[in-house]
Amino acid sequence: MILMIEIKGLQNLVKYSYHPPGDKSISHRVAILGALSNDWLNITNFSQGKDCFTTISCLQEIGIPIEVDGTTVKIYPWKKLKNKVNLDCGNSGTTARLLPSILGGLNIEGVLFGDSSLSQRPMERVITPLKKLGGILEGTDGKLPIKVERGWRLRGEKLELQIPSAQIKSAILLAGLFASNPVIVKESKVTRNHTEIMLKEFGINLEVKEREITIYPGKLVSPREYHVVGDFSSAAYFIALGLLSKEEIIEIRDVGLNPTRTAFLEVITKMGAKIQIINEKVIHGEKMGDIKVFPSTLKGIEVSEDLIPNIIDELPLLGVLASFAQGTTKVVKAGELRVKESDRIKGTVENLKKFGVNIMELEDGFIVQGGNKLRGREIYCHKDHRIVMAMTVAALFSEGNTKILDSQWVNISNAPFFKEIKKIAPNSIIDLSVRD
Ligand SMILES: O=C(O)C1=C[C@@H](OP(=O)(O)O)[C@@H](O)[C@H](O)C1
Ligand SMILES: C=C(OP(=O)(O)O)C(=O)O
């Protein structure tokens, strides 16, 4: 694994067809629903991110028989689960926020904990709504560790969410599977809807009216085979490379195009990006297709507030693209970025400033004055995969060399990231890893 890298900027890029790894959000969910269905399930193109294997090892820890062979994951029916578990959720917010509902629903006592980053992230946002449904659980000052007790008696309630978060919505919907009556969740803004789509794929009766979702408790039925579409968020870095390149170099293949995930495409198109979507189809209710990316001259934009939840993980990358665009780009109402794996507003602003970008930090976003000429630097990405990948794009279009001190964190969502980057930028990546 590459631990520390140096990136030589402004080298020749090579034409490449990028197949992103399986979608991270969908992989977490299909592993969880597969485990709950208590039947066989063969999952192909499972995510290559460590976070999804964290979910798998937590499920194995509670007694679900799961075999992993590369990107194929086989889930088997189970007879007896453990009564009491300690679950290490590592760096993964999705794991820590979705699994309390599973422990409660399956009547397992447990403690969920995580690494130093995850231990700083807010958990009250799932604890409070789960308690309203009848869940018995407690956090530690609103954070991890979370202690889940046995004996949940979940009832149907209508919950209105103030924070736009697919993880909170999904925690409630998963608890709804075990409730005595239908559970209704009303979102303040549309967030990614993979849980809703997948629950239907597993035979659950679910109604969606605008931002209001009703789940009718029921037994999950395994589809037996599930192919995960390519991860749009991983593809975004490669789309950015294709836009900034002087020549046409990138085509993205078999990528998820669920509209609640692709606000990045909407925003960059408004900035002047030339892209073409082809070969669209739907699998397991999820839209997918190929994206052709053409070199583009970009202009600054004010990102619409309503789109923020659907572009949230791509905002550091948008900061990078805005650095090369003409004019001003403004991102506001994105305070959620401060409570991700790191403070992503700080990490984006601090690092782009090092590259020489004219960027200003706001409480809930940032303002970039475009038209910058970037210069390579030594940077630290606060052990955050999305910051490492965004800054790699910046480094490839900077003069001189950039050293990324903590590049290994890409493995959280996309372990083969640098292997793939080397195929597009063969002379740009120098591996500085020190191995024993
Ligand atoms: O549900 C999910 O799979 C995710 C939801 C988002 O988090 P929030 O729910 O906290 O917005 C996103 O940032 C994260 O990468 C994955
Ligand atoms: C925020 C992220 O994930 P999680 O919340 O699952 O840690 C992410 O992948 O950018």
Automatic annotation (TrEMBL):
Monomer. It comes from Anaerobranca gottschalkii DSM 13577. 3-phosphoshikimate binds at K24, S25, R29, S165, Q167, D313, K340. This is 3-phosphoshikimate 1-carboxyvinyltransferase. It comes from the Bacteria. One of its GO terms (cellular component) is cytoplasm. Pathway: Metabolic intermediate biosynthesis; chorismate biosynthesis; chorismate from D-erythrose 4-phosphate and phosphoenolpyruvate: step 6/7. It holds the Pfam family EPSP_synthase. Transmembrane segments: none annotated. Residues 20-419 form the Enolpyruvate transferase domain.
